[in-house]
Amino acid sequence: MNFGHFDDQHREYVITNPRTPWPWINYLGNEDFFSLISNTAGGYTFYKDAKFRRLTRYRYNNVPMDSGGKYFYIKDADTSWSPGWKPCKTELDSYECRHGMNYTSIKGEKNGVTASALYFVPLKTWAEVQKLTLTNHSKAVKKLKVFSFIEWCLWNAAADMENFQRNFSTGEVEIEDSVIYHKTEYKERRDHYAYYSVNVPVQGYDTDRESFFGLYNGFDEPQVVAEGKSRNTEAHGWSPIASHYIEVELQPGEIKDFIFILGYVENKEDEKWESKNIINKKKAKETIARFNTAAKVDAALADLRRYWDNLLSIYTVDSGDEKLDRMVNIWNQYQCMITFCFSRSASFFESGIGRGMGFRDSNQDLIGFVHQIPERARERIIDIASTQFQDGGCYHQYQPLTKRGNNDIGGGFNDDPLWLILGTISYIKESGDFSILGEMVPFDNDMSVARTLFDHLSVSFDHVVNNLGPHGLPLIGRADWNDCLNLNCFSNDPNESFQTTENKSEGSKAESLMIAGLFVVYGRDYVTLCKKLGKHEEAARAQSHVDTMIDAVKKHGWDGEWFIRAYDYYGRKIGSKENEEGKIFIESNGWCTMAGIGKEEGLCTKALDSVKERLDTRYGIVLNNPAFTKYYIEYGEISSYPPGYKENAAVFCHNNPWIMIGETVAGNGNRAWEYYKKICPSYLEDISELHKTEPYVYGQMVAGKDAFKPGEAKNSWLTGTASWNFYAITQFILGIQPDYDGLIIDPCIPDSWSAFKVTRKFRGATYKIEIQNPEHKSKGVRSVSVDGKPQDTNLIPIFGDGKEHNVTVLLG
Ligand code: BGC
Ligand code: NOJ
Q1: Helix crossing, 453-465 with 416-431: angle to 10°?
Q2: Please, are residues 74 and 83 in contact by the beta-carbon 8 Å criterion?
Q3: What angle do CA 395, 46, 725 make, to 5 degrees?
Q4: What is the pLDDT of residues 288-340, one digit of tens each?
Q5: CA-closest candidate to residue 694, choices 20, 83, 87
Q6: CA Rg, the chain, in Å?
Q7: Does the CB atom of residue 469 touch ligand 2 within 6 A?
Q8: Distance (Å) from CA 646 to ligand 1 centroid
Q9: Is-catalytic flag, 483?
């Protein structure tokens, strides 16, 4: 069943039934100021950091689901309704939500009145703009009462949910004209306040939650709305909110716009106050003035659209398959921007409190984002590297506001350092900017021990070399990419966290074949980079470590039909035919085949066939098989999940593209494509009822074959799946790869395809690439011509001349 449809021309997903199987959300803002918004206007807002600078409250996992948001209540005679159906849940005559690129519009119609609420964060603005448009389609004059609503969060989203004995006494507001200012804690250590305004005079307002709703009412029936007039309350402690009350008269056919602004201001210490206890409102008023007419708002939205036109013009495919085109050209790239912005911090599955920016996560996110805005990728790489330790180890996460490593989570995940090589190399290949390698970058944010970014890559490489186990394979540390394979944890206390509890690493023999494959792939990249820089000795040294690793994998990592996954604390195999459960895993087979380890001897093909045979399912490739059915103390969290969920044998979408890429390395385009389609959301739209999450973005996991409901997805939006799938489809299946000296064209497609086109903007020129496949091959470039001239290589040169160049590629 469908709950809406794609509108590719406007780059929107149009939801036509508000009762989606789960809140289907969107993100507003992509630099400093952000909101999450569901199809029924649920969600919340923050500045930079979803934990430390939360502006509005949200109730996670509530009854009903998706409670709290940016609500409008419209009272027309005795009927109260909301344009997004929720929270009133009054049956609407029509409903439509359009989620677009960083904007959402939600339109409802009731008794001849349409209310359309447009929400977005204008570029370079610390505010969310909401334009509410009311239209009277009826023949009668309509006298409407409109109530806006948001609820302030007391800034620190964690404390806000815990420390009520304090919180209930701290809330403070100021009201001036039609603007409600939230100044809680402003007089002590904060240099910031928030505000919510509307561009017309109001007939009333409320700022005290209890007075607005009545203590025993829900979001669906505020007392004030029922009574048809606000109470003009000023919050003192308890829970401050902001609600405007506006009386509107609409003649038949008349349309009126109202502009609401939810904004954030920072003031310097000596500019905080206008007079005693009265906050300095200058900056808020400036922002309000920038958007005080519908024309100004429309212009700002047009700017945002142009910004996205530009971003999405960098890579476009014309394949003839609309589902593929809309993912590559619109939604997958959009999701990559979102994961770039938020890492794994704030979604409807991530509270914004627990996790900051992940070291490995943010590096991987770059591979789907770097082509969009390389300058921002550059800044991110430096931020991430600045949290690294001198021995190459890393904090697992850092807070976006402070950019400092998060001590609560700590480090010791031995795959982490290698991803910095991936992130950096992807940036250089896209931009050609080698100067980043010479930037002085601190360790653990301490500038006194800064070294160049290149040195950070060296210590990343050496972190593996310096942490090898008994088989010469990388020690796993706290865990590798699979955070739940906790081989040194041995936790038997349910009150401990698998992620942070003290590890028994001393004397551990736990080694990871996944890190081994990763090391070969990015170790080789490191070698190439060293050579490019003329560091031949370092290149040779690194190459010898890579070669040794390849030997170690062949000797100790091959199980006969596939690559084993790891050795446990005691040095026993995991992911081997010898095991009763968890005989085969996706990660090591993905990385070792991407690395092409043992390709000549047929190991890669065998491993990929084993994956196909044992892990492939209707809904994608599961992480491991057979699923763990009991808790193994020596494996940790992975065996804590019921079979078929999360890291225990779900389709963990993030690593499906590793196999897709492995298949392209082996030249098998049909299989790569089949795997791509199985987890790609646009192909799953028709099974939305089962799939549950948004049909326009990837989720982290889909319940595996051992689960109760195979095919049901969870944890949409913030997952490395976005960037890895974009990377797999664009660079390995469609095969357009940015490289140091040009674009490499090397597709690996299903043999049924006859042709496709890609337009790629790269280093200051536009490449119009046409791939023809008359002989229906999967892989192999027979001839290439550029601007009509035959070329003897599939490396297309850098032109940098601002012009268009026609590239014709013949497969065969
Ligand atoms: C999840 C992982 C996640 C880890 C760290 C685990 O509970 O299953 O997917 O990476 O927590 O937050
Ligand atoms: C989610 C985490 O964000 C990521 O870092 C990890 O690699 C995967 N889960 C797998 O455990």
Answers
A1: 140
A2: yes
A3: 60
A4: 999 999 999 999 999 999 999 999 999 999 999 999 999 999 999 999 999 99
A5: 20
A6: 28
A7: no
A8: 9
A9: yes
Q: How large is the average pLDDT for residues 725-748?
A: 98
What local confidence, expressed as pLDDT, does residue 407 receive?
A: 87
The residues, ordered by sequence, that sit 6+ positions from 151 with a Cβ below 8 Å of its Cβ are 56, 57, 68, 209, 239, 240, 241, 242
* The ligand 1 atom nearest the CA atom of 355: 12
Report yes or no: 85 and 95 within 8 Å, Cβ to Cβ. yes
- The tokens describing 203, both together, are 């007939």
Which residues have C-beta within 8 Å of that of residue 767, sequence separation ≥ 6? 743, 758, 759, 760, 761, 796, 804, 805, 807
Contact between residue 463 and residue 774 where contact means Cβ atoms under 8 Å apart? no
Query: Could you tell me if 747 and 683 are in contact, meaning their C-beta atoms sit under 8 angstroms apart?
Result: no
Question: pTM of the full predicted structure?
Answer: 0.98
Compute, in angstroms, the gap from residue 637 CA to the centroid of ligand 1: 9
Identify the DSSP state of 331: I
Q: How far is CA 755 from CA 48, 114, 326, 673, 676, in A?
A: 44, 46, 18, 15, 18
Q: Other C-beta atoms within 10 Å of 251: how many? A: 10
CB 273 within 8 A of CB 280: yes
Report the nearest-CA residue for atom 9 of ligand 1: 483
Nearest one of 812, 808, 811, 670 to 749, comparing CA atoms: 670
SS3 call for 181: strand
> Which has more confidence, 1 or 358?
358
Kindly indicate the confidence band of residue 1, based on its pLDDT and cuts at 50, 70 and 90.
Answer: confident
Residue 344, ligand 2, Cβ within 6 A:
yes
CA distance 637 to 624: 14
Ligand 1 environment, Cβ below 6 A: 483-484, 499, 637, 646-647
Residue 356: the pLDDT is 87
Enumerate the β-bridge partners of residue 758.
317, 769
Does any ligand 2 atom lie closer than 6 A to the CB of residue 483?
yes
Cα 647 to ligand 1 centre (Å): 8
CA–centroid distance, 412 to ligand 2, in Å, is: 14
Residue 205 pairs in a beta bridge with 244
CA 475–ligand 1 middle distance (angstroms): 20
Ligand 1 pocket: which of 483, 700, 716, 721 to mutate (most atoms within 8 A of CB): 483
For the CA of 718, the closest atom of ligand 2 is 3
Span from the CA of 70 to the centroid of ligand 2 (angstroms): 31
Check residue 681 and report its DSSP letter: G
Give the number of the ligand closest to the Cα of residue 641.
1
586 close to ligand 2 (CB < 6 Angstrom): no
Mean pLDDT of the chain: 97
Residue 214 has pLDDT above 90, yes or no: yes
| Residue 390 pLDDT level (bands cut at 50, 70, 90) | very high
Unique residue bearing structure tokens 């789907």:
368
Nearest ligand for residue 652 CA = 2
Of 483, 525, 616, 746, which one is the catalytic site residue? Answer: 483
Kindly report, residue by residue over 669-707, the tens digit of the pLDDT.
999 999 999 999 999 999 999 999 999 999 999 999 999
Q: Which of 361, 422, 518 to probe ligand 2 with, by most ligand atoms within 8 A of CB?
A: 361
Of 52, 35, 46, the closest CA to residue 403 belongs to 52
Ligand 2 pocket, mutate which of 483, 586, 700 (most atoms under 8 A from CB): 483
Q: What gap in Å lies between CA 351 and CA 481, rounded to an integer?
A: 21
Q: How confident is the model at residue 410 (pLDDT cuts 50, 70, 90)?
A: confident
Rounded distance, CA 555 to CA 520, Å? Answer: 15
Summarize pLDDT for 482-528 with one digit per residue, the tens: 999 999 999 999 999 999 999 998 899 999 999 999 999 999 999 99
761 burial type by CB count under 10 A (0-12 exposed, 13-18 middle, 19+ buried): middle
- What b/e readout covers 174-185, taking b as 16+ CB neighbours within 10 angstroms? bbeebbbbbbbb
